[in-house]
Amino acid sequence: MSRPRKWRRVCCLPESNLFGPLTPSEGEPEIVCMSVEEYEAIRLIDLEGLMQEACAERMNVARTTVQRIYNEARKKIAESLVNGKILKIEGGDYKLCDEEEPMYGCGWCRREFAAQLQAKMKSEGDA
Length: 127
Description:
Elements: E1 8-10, E2 18-19, E3 31-34, H1 36-47, H2 52-59, H3 63-83, E4 86-89, E5 94-96, H4 110-126
Parallel strand pairs: 1-5, 3-4
Antiparallel strand pairs: 2-4
Helix pairs in contact: 1-3, 2-3
């Protein structure tokens, strides 16, 4: 019996989940599928500039798991860019952060942005 897969914690889903070339190619376009946790690893490491250890802590997995997820995501991005394939983000073994979990202050987290916006609107309303 195989070991059950561990759910990876993901802050938020991407606003867009389909990316590709602007000029259509002949025939049916090829699609490269990236999982949501691969997207999250790219977001945390490349966009936020976190080290793999910090990324692993946020995603609630081992550093070696993050390294594997990140490497797979980079291969898929490269395949999409170099070969002109459509990149689709969907599926995976993930669990979205819920309201009880602490917010990390990443600045890109839509949950935190919404909380900051509400606080700002409230303070302006009190003034």
